[in-house]
Amino acid sequence: MSPTAATSLPASRVPDPREAPALRWGVVGTGWIAERFVAALQRLTVQEVVAVGSRSEASAREFAGRFGLTHAHGSYESLVADPDVDVVYVATPHNRHRPHALLALEAGKHVLVEKPIALNAAEAREIADAAAARGLFCAEALWSLFTPKFDVVRQVLDSGLLGDISSVVADNGEWFAPDHRIQRHDLAGGPLLDLGTYPLALTHWVLGSSTDVLARGTDAPSGVNGQVGALLGFEGGARAVVHTSILANTPVALTIAGSEGSLEVPGVFYRPGPFSVVLTDGTRLDYDETAIAYDALAHQAAEVARRVLAGDTETPVRPLADSIATMALIDAVRAQIGQVWDEER
Ligand SMILES: NC(=O)c1ccc[n+]([C@@H]2O[C@H](COP(=O)([O-])OP(=O)(O)OC[C@H]3O[C@@H](n4cnc5c(N)ncnc54)[C@H](OP(=O)(O)O)[C@@H]3O)[C@@H](O)[C@H]2O)c1
Questions:
Q1: Of ligand 1's atoms, which has the minimum distance to the CA of residue 294?
Q2: Which residue lies with its CA nearest to atom 30 of ligand 1?
Q3: At residue 277, does pLDDT exceed 90?
Q4: pLDDT tens digits, residue range 124-135?
Q5: Which residue range or ranges hold the GFO/IDH/MocA-like oxidoreductase domain (predicted)?
Q6: Which of 37, 84, 86, 254 can pair with 265 through a Cys bridge, CB separation 3.0 to 4.6 Å?
């Protein structure tokens, strides 16, 4: 697509999630995202969620009852050993992703791990190595990249329509109550691993690995990091400005700007919704879709099913190398603000 020829945006190449063949899923954890993931699969796919595992028997039974799941396990060990489960979805707090992903892989299950894939790049590599050693599928559930909207963004970027990309500006700030897990240092709280994963992963997705990182942070009253601003540099002179916060609601917008035009995704940029491309000659191209929010979690599950049944161990939508690179970028930001997790001490 050349700038002069552009009259519309490309169509999404993402298949209807209902067309993906069914896998039998087991869910680790019964929290906020686990609920939305199971609801999305049941509404928009033919995937079979057959089992849930919880630290508590009662929680597992309640969750299984609510969603009509066949098996309720009172431990994660029991869930991963379930012979009726093909693939495990890890939906526990960040600092439990590594142990729970390894638990599933060691039990011979394919695994989809919530974002961020781990606490740091070393842990992410350990998970990737464990999956490779066993020939099992593994991916990070960075759900946005699996959606039709981001497939269209990818095509716009690959087409060169925006010219030479010189800057990415991405923000993700959301106020959280003092009792939310994000306020707890022992659960690797603060915005970076949670909300910050989106703008930082997107920056890498657009510009590749940064060559220098300057970051500054402010603590939240709870004692965890409350917000971070980062200025990233890239080979050739491109820059990214990233901000993430749990202290306040911010626009949650994304701009990718180049010599021929800019792509602007209004908030909440990482969920389904509109975006526009405005070229330097004044041409405006709009993308729109129903903002189905968390039902779009169905797309990542459908991609996992397609890949597993094709015998693949990764997805090109979110290769493990990209997950590791995002963690390395977060490590570099953390080094600048002096943030160390308990597990790293
Ligand atoms: N894709 C997205 O849009 C999205 C949105 C929100 C969160 N997430 C990611 O999903 C993960 C979970 O977030 P969430 O908001 O769902 O958290 P949550 O509501 O607190 O649920 C986490 C679940 O993990 C289990 N768990 C295991 N060890 C735990 C511990 N030490 N403390 C607390 N819970 C523990 C619990 O289930 P049991 O009690 O049943 O064992 C709990 O219900 C995070 O890594 C987050 O980044 C992704």
A1: 3
A2: 93
A3: yes
A4: 999 999 999 999
A5: 152-264
A6: 254
The label of the residue with tokens 């954890």 reads 29
Please identify, by atom number, the ligand 1 atom nearest to the C-alpha of residue 141.
1
CA 58 – ligand 1 centroid, Å: 17
**Are the C-beta atoms of residues 215 and 331 closer than 8 Å to each other?**
no
Cis peptide before 52 (omega within 30 of 0): no
SS (H, E, C) 236-274: CCCEEEEEEECCCCCCCCEEEEECCEEEEECCCCCCCCC
The protein residue with its alpha carbon nearest to ligand 1, atom 21, reads: 31
- Identify the pLDDT of residue 5: 57
Alpha carbons 55 and 77: distance in angstroms, whole number:
10
Structural domains of the chain in order of their starting residue, each with its CATH number:
17-143 (3.40.50.720), 145-291+317-344 (3.30.360.10)
**Mean pLDDT of the region 170-184:** 97
| Cβ-proximal residues to 50 (8 Å cutoff; 6+ apart), any chain | 24, 25, 26, 69, 70, 71, 82, 84, 85
Residues 6+ apart with CB under 8 A from 64: 51, 52, 70, 71, 72
Distance 12 CA to ligand 1 centre (A): 31
Pocket of ligand 1 (CB under 6 A): 29-34, 54-56, 59, 91-94, 96, 114-115, 141, 143, 181, 187, 194
List residues with catalytic annotation: 115
Euclidean distance between the first and the last CA atom of the chain, given in angstroms as a whole number: 50
Can you tell me which atom of ligand 1 is nearest the CA of 143? 1
Average pLDDT over residues 43-58: 98
CA-closest residue to ligand 1 atom 7: 33
State what percent of residues in the chain have pLDDT above 90: 97
